[in-house]
Design goal:
five-stranded antiparallel beta sheet; 8 helices; 35% helix; 33% strand; DNA-binding response regulator
């Protein structure tokens, strides 16, 4: 079975390049069309119902987010394409939606398409695009939500509900305020990149914590933080000074 795909890209060379890559190296896809601006993309999606959309983030007539807000439905998977690793990527990462940096690398394209096809084969719309738009619209300082994919489905968790994260090899365990634990098949480093600016701190090679959930800092026994769920989290000697500075700022 082939899945109908659309490429949304306003630069002719980039559009042709990606079109050729998809036709030659993505046999799972049928390239049903291309769009060079927001209006064309909206019209195609509403009329043709593609299953996968390669979405340029920044176009002369608007953005890929404008397309998502104007279409009549979100019954499709999105892989964003962009030449800029900027603020929009944060919202995309939180929502677990794939993106490709230009110039597009063939291996990264094949991997992203394989992941998209697997998602389309195993479940219908899971709400990621809606959550992505919600995060993108939120003013700075408001609580974001993060998408956590597990073997059972996708959980959408507000960041304020997360107490701590623990690394387990290639997996990460999220410990939540309601007592739940969610294990995802991504390493802790990936979450460190997007959570650090939202009040989280990599306190140890194996742990990342929500600074707002630190109840007490104990300096004896090598140093550890007591969290709101009573967990004791060791502080790496290399992180002590930075942790102390952040906790001091929190108390001001």
């Amino acid at each position: 079975m082939k899945y109908k795909a659309l490429i949304v890209e306003d630069e002719v060379l980039s559009r042709d390049f990606l079109s050729n890559l998809v036709r030659e190296f993505c046999p799972q896809l049928e390239l049903a069309g291309t769009a060079s601006n927001v209006d064309e993309a909206v019209a195609f999606i509403n009329a043709k119902y593609p299953r996968l959309v390669f979405m340029d983030i920044e176009m002369q007539t608007g953005t890929g987010f404008d397309v998502l807000q104007k279409v009549n439905h979100h019954n499709f998977h999105v892989i964003f394409t962009t030449a800029f690793d900027h603020y929009a990527i944060k919202a995309i990462k939180f929502s677990a939606v794939d993106y490709l940096l230009k110039p597009i690398n063939l291996q990264e394209l094949e991997l992203a398409v394989a992941k998209a096809v697997k998602t389309m084969e195993t479940r219908a719309d899971d709400g990621r695009l809606e959550m992505l738009l919600q995060n993108f619209r939120k003013p700075a300082g408001e609580d974001f939500s993060i998408s956590l994919s597990t073997s059972e489905g996708v959980d959408f968790i507000p960041l304020s509900h997360i107490i701590r994260l623990e690394a387990k090899g290639p997996y990460t365990i999220f410990y939540l305020r309601d007592g739940r634990q969610i294990m995802v098949s991504k390493n802790l480093k990936e979450y460190e990149l997007c959570l650090t600016e939202h009040g989280f701190f990599r306190i140890h090679n194996s742990y990342m914590i929500n600074l707002k959930d630190v109840k007490r800092w104990v300096k004896t026994d090598g140093g550890y933080a007591v969290m709101s769920d009573e967990a004791l989290v060791a502080i790496s000697p290399k992180k002590k000074d930075e942790f102390m500075m952040l906790m001091t700022k929190r108390m001001v």
